Amino acid sequence: MPTVPPANPAVDTADVFALLERGRALSTPVLRAAIGRLAPPMDTVAAYHFGWIDAEGRPADGDGGKAVRPALALLSAEAAGAAAETGVPGAVAVELVHNFSLLHDDLMDGDEQRRHRDTVWKVHGPAQAILVGDALFALANEILLELGTAEAGRATRRLTVASRKLIDGQAQDISFEHRERVTVEECLEMEGNKTGALLACAVSIGAVLGGADDRTADVLESYGHHLGLAFQAVDDLLGIWGDPGATGKQTWSDLRQRKKSLPVVAALAAGGPASEQLGELLAADAKSTDFASFSEEEFATRAALIEEAGGREWTSQEARRQHAVAIEALSGIGMPERVRAQLTALADFVVVRKR
Question: Is 221 a member of any domain?
Answer without folding.
Answer: yes
